[in-house]
Design a protein that fits this description.
This protein has a single domain, classed as Beta-Lactamase. The chain starts with a helix and ends with a strand. The chain has helices at 5-25, 36-44, 66-72, 76-79, 93-106; strands at 49-53, 61-64, 108-117, 123-135, 141-148, 150-153. It has five helices and six strands, in the order ααββαααββββ.
């Protein structure tokens, strides 16, 4: 996770992400003991993937825990400057956009399966992913999050 001046901003984003997940799914994504900085560190070091993007017209990834950074083969700075659509091959982007729209209208989906691609073009199948809307306490949409613990690397 980014350290220094961005750490409090990232910790606050993690709170929105975690609060929205708990609201939508009815249970916590992680154990939420301690200060928000400790919760953010726990989330960042969790063994499952967690990633999110904002609500721009072409959403930019704004969070990835270490598992996400490793899977997509990117540094924090690379990841958080990447348009979210780049995580899917062009041939799979229409299906990805449909899934994101479905999650946006329903609040979440819990059974997403799709092919993704890393920075070095390594392809992998994501299975049983949960995609949810991230909102602030007033209910304003801030972005979408994704989490999954199951993926399989595919032949090139």
């Amino acid at each position: 996770m980014k350290t220094g001046s961005k750490s409090l901003q990232t910790a606050q984003w993690c709170q929105y992400l975690l609060d929205s997940y708990a609201y939508r799914l009815g249970h916590e994504l992680i154990v939420r003991d301690g200060p928000i900085i400790e919760q953010a560190e726990y989330l960042f070091n969790s063994p499952f993937v967690v990633a999110s993007h904002g609500i721009q017209d072409d959403p930019i990834l704004n969070y990835g825990n270490q598992a996400a950074l490793d899977l997509w083969e990117m540094s924090w700075d690379e990841f958080t400057q990447t348009p979210s659509r780049i995580t899917a091959e062009p041939v799979n982007r229409e299906a990805r956009a449909h899934m994101l729209a479905q999650a946006k209208s329903q609040g979440y989906i819990s059974d997403y399966r799709g092919v993704r691609i890393s920075r070095t073009k390594r392809r992998f199948m994501v299975d049983q992913a949960i995609i949810w809307n991230i909102c602030n306490p007033d209910g304003a949409l801030l972005g979408q999050g994704a989490t999954f613990s199951t993926w399989t690397y595919l032949e090139s």
